[in-house]
Amino acid sequence: MISCLSLSSYSFCEKIALKKYRRCVKRGCIKRPQVVSGAKKDGFGLRVFVLSDLHTDYPENMAWVRSLSTKRHEKDVLLVAGDVAEMYDNFILTMSLLKERFEYVFFVPGNHDLWCRWETEDFDSLEKLNKLLDACKQLGVETNPAVIDGLGIIPLFSWYHESFDREDDIVGVRIPSLDMACKDFHACKWPGNLSNRDTSLALYFDLMNEKNQNTVKRIQSTCSQIITFSHFVPRQELCPEKRMLFYPNLPKVIGSDWLEDRIRSIHGVESSSFACHVFGHTHFCWDAVVDGIRYVQAPLAYPRERKRRMNGGETWLPFCIYLDGEFGAKVMPCYWSDYYAINPRTPSNMELAPWVARFYNLI
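RE: above sequence
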């Protein structure tokens, strides 16, 4: 569930429809987490901030990173949930700037981080991954699980697979293929045994987490509060229904069942108020509790997307999710993403929102 919706541009009838939509969501398994103040207490208190999808290949986004205070966060933790930059040099600069501003910086790679389109060196996406991880080690950026002031923080490597999508496909309209819509199929270069077209990449990245299993078990036995984070989406409920998406096949390239299984193995099946998972990738502001785990996405996103947000979309980032032993934060603003819109006409489950169809010149 998204934390809030701007109604200023809707008619009275459309506002009523949206209120009904929100009431339906409240009756489901998704609900708002308890909200507490994000203000820092002077002199003490661990704060954890989250951010994803920085895309600092855009000069506006790099300028935003540079604008972050070098004093305000000097004792804070930042979790970076992937998609820092496509270009290696921009990645290094961005992570260096963040490490200068935060005491602890954690990182997991996203798909854009592993693109190889414009690199001067000739390497594939796995070689680039290792290069990024080596660079993080040199910069003092954490990519492995750790405990800070009694709080367990666990980065999780992941990739998506098409079988993650279990919702019925939209039929009767022309929808661009995954190859056309998803640049990963062309911008990433994988060795012959790995492919975006099956589950091999999702399995490969999930198995990367096995080397940290002993550390994870120690964190589970010693920490009552744990934050996990990944770039990709662990549950399909964390993405709007296909009829509300500009690209209805988006769920096929966003998440992994193995990721959700691993999250459950860490937080437990029943979970508690101290379980939180942070993710990125879809550029949706998201803050919801699903089956006992709080899921948060706080993307910087593309400059054109930020222009659609309330407050200009920059004043509330990075987003504070943990303060002095408690989970919670100020209300996260929401915005319209390039990928989706909510249809106030509440159509049947398999009917495309009319403006989505027009977007593809389908009707």
